[in-house]
Amino acid sequence: MKTLFLILTFKIGFFSILYGQTSPTRFKEDIDVFLLIGQSNMQGVAPITESDTLPLKNVFLLTSDYDWEPARNLTNQGMNRYSSVKKNPKTLYGPAYSFGRKIEQLTNKKIGIISNARGATRIEWWQKGFEGDTSYHLQSDFDLYENAVLRVKETLERYPNARLKAILWHQGEANNHPNRSVFYLNHLKKLISQFRIYFQDPHLPFIVGEVGTWNKRGEQINPILNSINNYISNTYCVNSFGLTSIDLEKNDPHFDNLSQKVLGERYAIAVAKLAYSVSVKGVQLFSEYNFKGKDIILTEGSYGIDEINDSGLLVHEIKSIKCDPGFLFEFISEKNKSTFNSSQLKMEKIPFNVIKVKSTKIVEKNN
């Protein structure tokens, strides 16, 4: 592995010289960096919509040449397009885009995303020094750990004001089997330890995500993912409640576009808590009655319909609402508005032709 590591370093150095990028002169500001790794749902398989191609404010994506470019999806290439281990022919919409947008909104920080996922990979293949799986009929040694570490290492060296804030992990479908899930927790513990040791940060936040649950998917792996915080400090598992398949008839394991948007925001809320000690408060909207299904949290502010839809929950899907203490919620049309400030509310239907919604923090007046 040491020889491979040197080869990879040489290749990156060669291409940096080739493209004239030998020093971090293009981006000197402080930037909080996040490493996104895992298999195909992190890589992204969902279709990309037009609004997904808009550059995000203060969110940047690391290119193959170690430049920071404004984070956006292309019409046929998603945020994992610069992964050094990506599975061809292409990567589409994953959680990176909505994650970046939400964590920037919650922290007001410049955000840097290093997306280095590869589809159809098992957790064993992500271990340091892995040299192949003899029980697998195709190639399995892609130096996944080494490539992920190298991209972060090079980034931190080139950009002295960059700091690694957290690692986001979404993987498990390939291990969702009784024989392959039994050692999953041990592999996950080891992987997290390897990253923390390498980056000399014993408290580096590590956030995992559940796989989809339709047609009894995830029955083996999700309970293990959900138990992570019982065994490893400064970790969190993002749930997949209400998220839906890109093709349910075919029992496709991949999340659709709206579900990926919700998943990305859930990762951001978890990161806000673990990496920034920010507890996100506001109004929570659900796609099902009884406060279940897809959900998004609106912090204080006004939101147009497109903004709500781009968060992954369509306005007409809203079935129930929770307001955190001190918040109220409004549906607003051109002529009317309906205000709700109860802690829990079930919606029979949206009140009228809504053009925007508003989450307001109530300011108590002193007598």
Keyphrases for this structure?
367 residues; alpha/beta; Rossmann fold; Gamma-B Crystallin, domain 1; 2 domains; four-stranded antiparallel β-sheet; 10 helices; 28% helix; 21% strand
| Dominant shape | globular
SS-based class? alpha/beta
CATH superfamily of the largest domain: SGNH hydrolase
Which consecutive residue ranges, at least 5 long each, have pLDDT under 50?
Answer: 2-25
If classified by CATH, what would the architecture of the largest domain be? 3-Layer(aba) Sandwich
User: Which strand order do you get reading across the main beta sheet?
Assistant: 3-2-4-1-5-6-7
Give the fraction of residues assigned to helices.
25-40%
Q: What does the main sheet amount to?
A: 7 strands, mixed
Which H/E pattern describes the elements? HEHEEHEHEHHEHHEHEEEHEEEEE
- The percentage of residues in β strands lies in 15-25%
Total count of domains: 2
Number of helices: 10
Number of strands: 15
Radius of gyration: 21 Å
Query: Whole-Å distance between the termini?
Result: 69 Å
Mean pLDDT: 89
And the CATH topology of the largest domain? Answer: Rossmann fold
The top-level CATH class of the largest domain is Alpha Beta
